[in-house]
Design goal:
By secondary structure, this protein is an alpha/beta fold. It is 32% helix and 25% strand. It is built from 11 helices and 16 strands. Helix 3 links the parallel strand 7 and strand 8. The longest helix has 15 residues.
Length: 363
């Protein structure tokens, strides 16, 4: 299939990121007189029900649907009041787009950087299994491929073994950005995992940087449930001494952020030098104030995240918060998929990242 048979259907939740992906696609292909974003309209009735209309022809095209299910800046009027769109509503809009395609697309891929219900990926007792059910629903609607970033548990794809599931990690891009912004950041450094669940990610960072790795054990009160989780009683550090070292805390996301702030304070008490946090998704569900306070008080130096999910501009404009752009990688992936090329090179970038880190240290 030729590279012209390509259409990006970008919902408002992912508008800025989708437009950057299109710009990178055009640059990658040396094109100046084309466009890949097809027009669509996603509207709401006053009672909250919605519909999607695709305004351009997509017949026999390979379609990529962009949606940021975590974008809480999108609002609509419901019963006369402003209503923030929640993940459930964003996911419903993805299904509306698929329905509006009327089966005319040659192939449908959903670009959902923040995987819908990714944290509800397994079941204990009488719990819902939302992420698996959502993937199965997309598969039944005719979706052939999912592009996502840093899935909370990539094994959830076992729910739909016939569905192509490409899960990309921004670790390399974040490390390269850190090396560019502060060449001294990896000198005498250590990577810290906030819990045992993030150890594999922490080990990857440590192997690239060439440093030791430590971990915090979260002791929880299993007799209580607060906001859907057992509250943390204490953090116990396990690893080598952090005194005088540059510390990098890595995880897939910041949700409320209370746990991360506790770690930065504890690490400062342990006389760590620079303290940075690197995550794929910075959700700040309880607001950003505690992070600003931590920075002002000296317990947090940098936050590194990505632009694949919404972050308010007033946060990304701060000189100590970096939202690493992943649109070029996404464009490269789409270009390779469209041309039926293997994607292996986008997963195995450890060597070039290591070289970039070593270059920053040597300089």
């Amino acid at each position: 299939m030729s590279k012209n048979d390509l259409a990006l259907l970008v919902l408002d939740s992912s508008k800025e990121f989708g437009e950057k992906v299109e710009q990178n696609l055009l640059k990658l292909r040396g094109e100046t007189d084309k466009h890949y974003i097809s027009k669509l309209t996603a509207s709401r009735f006053t009672n909250g029900e919605g519909k999607v209309i695709i305004n351009d022809s997509i017949r026999n095209k390979e379609v990529y649907i962009f949606c940021d299910v975590g974008n809480y800046s999108i609002t609509y009027k419901c019963h006369g009041k402003d209503h923030e769109m929640m993940p459930d509503e964003h996911f419903q809009d993805i299904k509306r787009v698929i329905s509006a395609l009327c089966g005319h697309a040659a192939k449908v891929t959903v670009v959902m950087p923040l995987l819908y219900q990714g944290r509800q990926h397994r079941r204990k007792g009488r719990e819902s299994l939302d992420c698996a059910v959502a993937l199965q629903e997309l598969e039944r609607l005719g979706v052939k491929s999912i592009i996502t970033f840093d899935a909370h548990d990539p094994n959830v794809i076992n729910a739909t073994p016939s569905l192509s599931f490409d899960n990309f990690y921004p670790s390399n891009a974040i490390i390269e950005e850190m090396a560019k912004n502060d060449p001294t950041i990896f000198e005498n450094s250590i990577v810290i995992s906030p819990d045992f669940g993030a150890m594999e990610r922490a080990r990857f960072y440590a192997e690239i940087i060439g440093c030791d790795v430590g971990v915090f054990y979260k002791r929880r009160d299993l007799s209580k449930v607060v906001n859907g989780k057992n509250p943390i009683v204490a953090h116990t550090y396990m690893g080598s001494d952090v005194e005088g070292k540059n510390v990098l805390i890595v995880d897939d996301m910041i949700a409320s952020g209370g746990s991360v702030i506790d770690l930065t304070k504890k690490l400062r008490e342990m006389k760590a030098n620079k303290i940075s946090v690197a995550v794929t998704f910075a959700l700040f569900t309880e607001g950003f104030e505690m992070f600003q306070k931590a920075h002002d008080e000296g317990s947090l130096d940098y936050i590194y995240t990505t632009n694949v999910s919404y972050i308010p501009k007033e946060i990304t404009d701060l000189d100590w918060v970096y939202a690493v752009d992943m649109s070029k990688l996404t464009a490269q992936v789409i270009d390779s998929m469209d041309k039926k090329e293997p994607l292996t090179k986008y997963f195995n970038r450890a060597k070039e990242t290591f070289n970039a880190v070593q270059k920053s240290i040597n300089n």
